[in-house]
Design brief:
321 residues; mainly beta; SH3 type barrels; Thrombin, subunit H; 5-stranded antiparallel sheet; 8% helix
Length: 321
């Protein structure tokens, strides 16, 4: 880790970084807007096409049960001359960042996946600015590098919102100097907090997680605070993600939430490795995930312990001693 710390300082001192607001997609929600939709009534997948006609270029295979976003049936806007004959059969939407067209017979509305308003800002902040009136939820330090995170909740019952602020600091001997800051805010929903920040990765390659239950899981680069990848809610909903553990040598994230989901394993590249299904009404209220040598143990408030293999296979469910 010491070699990594020296490298990060050299990069910061030599090049510096610029900061700006990160873009979160906004759409016009007019009378044609359908929002999030689910793929249904197909055998395995439907085709996302470049244009609204059946022989248009194939962009992606969208599997049965997948969620597409920002769906619209505004034919007047997208059905110019070459596509008018078939355009009424298609819906414009977005799947994994690609815009295209899917036959509407294979889509149905899925309002539970409709993204709420979520905003992100990148700018340098002092430690005092970062903490503000919030509660400190992350405090990581290695040599002269530190990462802080604070969570703040509004007191306005008419417009409840949450904010999480995360920042990296270098102590050059005269005190901590801010390197970057990351601010995410979201409308509050439900009883549990939507926003969390925590450290991930390995000892030699640490990184920062920001989790937004209404948007997705984002990994931030420790050196500049910019988004490396985001695993959107539509790909893998993580519930409130109340309990998590990270493999010491692998950097794999194991996570489960009190309102769902069943345990999920996510690689440091942002790929869902597996999702374990636990169909037992007596298993609820996760408290802790233990990464043992040969198995994963998840302790629940209901008095149960779930044991999994590292490939996600269920070993068994036992009463907690």
């Amino acid at each position: 880790m010491k070699r990594f710390a020296s490298f990060i300082i050299a990069v910061i001192l030599c090049f510096g970084f610029s900061f700006s607001s990160a873009e979160r997609k906004t759409v016009e929600k007019d009378q044609y807007y359908l929002g999030a939709m689910r793929v249904v009534r197909c055998r395995e997948y439907v085709t996302l096409r470049e244009a609204p006609y059946k022989t248009a270029k194939e962009l992606a295979k969208v599997p049965l049960g997948a969620i597409v976003l920002f769906a619209s049936k505004n034919e007047k806007k997208y059905a110019y001359s070459p596509y008018k004959k078939q355009a009424h059969m298609f819906i414009k939407c977005e799947y994994e960042g690609q815009e295209g067209y899917i036959l509407k017979q294979f889509l149905e509305k899925a309002p539970e996946y409709e993204p709420v308003e979520s905003k992100v800002e990148n700018r340098k902040m002092t430690q005092e600015e970062l903490i503000g009136n919030g509660e400190k939820v992350l405090e990581w330090e290695e040599f002269n590098i530190s990462v802080l995170g604070a969570h703040e909740l509004s007191n306005d019952p008419q417009q409840p919102w949450e904010m999480i602020r995360v920042g990296c600091f270098i102590d050059d001997g005269d005190g901590p100097e801010p390197v970057w800051g990351y601010i995410e805010s979201v409308q509050q929903t439900g009883q549990n907090n939507n926003l969390k920040a925590f450290m991930g990765g390995t000892e030699d390659d640490p990184y920062v997680f920001v989790y937004d239950a209404e948007y997705g899981l984002t990994m931030l680069d420790l050196m500049d605070g910019m988004e490396v990848w985001t695993l959107p809610k539509t790909v893998c909903p993580l519930g409130d993600a109340s309990v998590y553990a990270i493999g010491e040598n692998t950097g794999i994230l194991y996570v489960t939430g009190s309102d769902g989901p069943d345990p999920v394993a996510i690689s440091s590249e942002g790929n869902v490795l597996w999702r374990s299904e636990i169909d037992d009404p007596e298993v609820y209220g996760p408290k802790e995930i233990k990464l043992e040598q040969y198995q994963i143990e998840i302790l629940y408030e209901s008095g149960k312990t779930v044991k999994l293999e590292y490939n996600g296979q269920l070993i068994g469910i036992e009463d907690t001693l």
